[in-house]
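Action item from last week, closing it out:
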Amino acid sequence: MRCPFCAYDDSQVKDSRPTEDNTAIRRRRQCASCGARFTTFERVQLREITVVKSTGAREPFDRDKIEQSVSLACRKRGITPEQIDRLVSGVQRQVETLGDSEVPSMAIGEMVMEGLRQIDTVAYIRFASVYRDFSEARDFEEIASEVQGGTDG
């Protein structure tokens, strides 16, 4: 494994353990050159998934993109990195078990929104505002009333 600090090609595994939800192996590594320590994660990938964008463009499924978007929506909300990782792992499992090698980005976005809605309504609205491209205050009002109706009923 290449060191992210000095780019040396050799590192030594110091500790390995499963993640909390047993969907990955967490490895603590130390660079043989500079001595820096870093963490890597090893996950099972069932198949190669291609994401089909609304424009028709295709790109490989990238778990990190989902994780970054979810982390941004959850910023300053008291949501732990473990909760975010569980949500992203759940979305990834759903995508991989659909059985299709091509998945519309809209379907992935809806999975993320459903996961966020269960964790934190503010993070859900933040994500929805970007994902659904809100352009005016009425868009926020509609989704906020949808959330309030869903939690009261």
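Closing note: The chain has five helices and six strands.
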